[in-house]
Design brief:
Distance between the termini of chain B: 48 Å
Distance between the termini of chain A: 64 Å
Number of domains of chain A: 2
CATH architecture of the largest domain in chain A: Beta Barrel
Low-confidence stretches of chain A: none
Strand content of chain B: under 5%
Number of strands of chain A: 6
Radius of gyration of chain A: 23 Å
Radius of gyration of chain B: 23 Å
CATH superfamily of the largest domain in chain A: Nucleic acid-binding proteins
Helix content of chain A: 25-40%
Oligomer: heterotrimer
Number of helices of chain A: 3
Largest interface: A-C, 40 and 40 residues
Helix content of chain B: over 70%
Largest sheet of chain A: 5 strands, mixed, barrel
Number of helices of chain B: 4
Strand order of the largest sheet of chain A: 1-3-4-6-5
Chains: A alpha+beta (about 140), B mainly alpha (about 80), C mainly alpha (about 230)
Number of strands of chain B: 0
Mean pLDDT of chain B: 86
Mean pLDDT of chain A: 84
Low-confidence stretches of chain B: none
CATH class of the largest domain in chain A: Mainly Beta
Structural class of chain A: alpha+beta
Shape of chain B: rod-shaped
Order of helices and strands of chain A: HHEEEEEEH
Shape of chain A: elongated
Structural class of chain B: mainly alpha
């Protein structure tokens, strides 16, 4: 059934696939660090000193009852339930930013547990439901 | 109620813009596709006009594509 | 007579176009009513969740059309099936449109929820790459003069592009991204409340019908182009 022509074409396709995969592996290996949009507070804790003073993004949950706000700046604790990071930021936060919700902060580390942010993004999860449903779920807890 | 619907809890701008953008771009693609289709139908019909009458009839009998397009063009004119 | 001959196809195309035209606006109005009025707000995002009803179907369509195009390009290249070539030529612009729309609506959804229009995270970037592949594919389809080698080049582009599809799909699971993980999975339960699934699937149906309509019209145009070229031989 496979004529010679078809075999040549298949060979061409296979070589394209092979070369692509090879390239992708190289790209993946070189981008490995950048492909992660943010690091977790635990990951920050184990890295070397070099990270300090360069821009990074850290993601995690905003710890309950940790938000302190005065007229100039907002201060809160970002946690991945293992390690914690204190974040200071002055500026407007996104509407979805609140306690016990995900957030990604972008800024410079002062030391391993203190970050001065110049941008805050809110991260939400994949659950969507009406408010009444949420209440029922919370009451069931 | 209308104001409420337009306002969408303060997010009206984002919601209406995204729905409108989808509508506008879908319409543009539809319009362009429709125009090209009509253009080619017409051109094919004109080409057929040029052929001798006998020949045209024979084609219309043997080809469903030609006959259906001729039929739709005749309906229009 | 071959069932897939142009003569048979064009009759079915006309019937389908008429059928879609007759039901489209009814379903559109029902879909929009559910999406914009009846469906509830989200407990967290409020009304912004409504953007999901255009964003998610657009992204699904963009991804699936590229997969279909890639498969038919490769099959067309190997076995030289004329109908497949017309199919991919008619589908490509629709896929590009919806990929673009999913990026733009996603941006409009990101601003009020995440607080940014754009982030270079794995999901958003890989979606942008998909759009670039669509553009590349369509440009080569349109402007490449070398018709002999066109299927070969298109196959190479679609292989490169199709490898990106699972990357898009699983980017939110493999790497840390700003984009949330998938709510609807092939297997298992969805994490969207059913009152929000109804408008989602209604809008998907509306957009799919729209795609089918454009596809059929483009396919018909392609058949007419071929007939016009061959008119002397008839």
């Amino acid at each position: 059934m496979l004529t010679k022509k078809i075999k040549t074409r298949l060979l061409f396709l296979l070589s394209v696939i092979f070369i692509t995969l090879l390239f992708l592996t190289f790209i993946y290996l070189s981008l490995k660090k950048n492909i992660l949009y943010f690091k977790t507070p635990s990951e920050i804790f184990i890295v070397d000193e070099i990270m300090i003073n360069s821009k990074i993004r850290v993601g995690g949950m905003v710890k309950k009852d940790s938000i302190q706000q005065n007229n100039k700046e907002i201060k809160f604790v970002l946690t991945d339930y293992k390690k914690e990071l204190i974040v200071v930021y002055n500026g407007a936060v996104p509407n979805l930013f609140s306690e016990e919700r995900g957030a990604v902060v972008e800024g410079k580390l002062n030391d391993k547990s203190y970050l001065i942010a110049d941008r805050i993004l809110a991260k939400h999860d994949e659950n969507y439901m009406p408010p009444e449903m949420k209440k029922i779920l919370e009451n069931a807890k | 109620m209308i104001i409420e619907l337009l306002n969408m809890g303060g997010y009206g701008f984002y919601i209406w813009t995204s729905f409108l953008l989808v509508a506008v771009f879908c319409f543009l693609l539809y319009y362009k596709t429709q125009k090209t289709l009509k253009k080619y139908e017409k051109e094919l019909a004109l080409e057929l006009e040029k052929l001798p009458k006998e020949h045209r009839k024979r084609i219309a009998r043997s080809s469903k594509v030609i006959s259906s397009i001729l039929a739709s063009q005749n309906k229009l004119s | 007579m071959n069932f897939f001959s142009f003569g048979n196809i064009i009759i079915y195309i006309d019937r389908f176009i008429n059928f879609i035209n007759s039901i489209f606006f009814v379903i559109l109005i029902v879909g929009l009513t559910f999406a914009l009025i009846i469906s509830p707000i989200d407990y967290l995002q409020g009304d912004t969740v409504r953007i999901m009803y255009v964003h998610v179907p657009s992204a699904w369509i963009g991804l699936s059309i590229f997969s279909i195009i890639a498969i038919s390009t490769i099959l067309n290249y190997i076995f030289k099936i004329k109908n497949l070539f017309l199919l991919l030529k008619s589908l490509a612009p629709i896929g590009l449109l919806f990929t673009g729309l999913s990026i733009v609506t996603g941006s409009l959804w990101g601003k009020p929820t995440w607080g940014t229009w754009w982030a270079w995270d794995a999901r958003l970037t890989s979606m942008l790459v998909l759009m670039l592949f669509y553009v590349l594919f369509i440009l080569s389809l349109k402007y490449l003069k070398d018709k002999e080698n066109l299927p070969k080049i298109l196959s190479a582009i679609s292989i490169l592009g199709v490898i990106n599809i699972p990357i898009i799909k699983y980017s939110v699971e493999w790497w840390s991204t700003l984009h949330q993980p998938a709510s609807i999975k092939f297997l298992g339960t969805s994490s969207i409340h059913y009152s929000m699934l109804i408008p989602l699937f209604l809008m998907l149906l509306v957009l799919l019908l729209y795609c089918a309509l454009i596809f059929l019209m483009k396919y018909k145009t392609e058949i007419i182009k071929i007939k016009k070229q061959n008119i002397k031989r008839l």
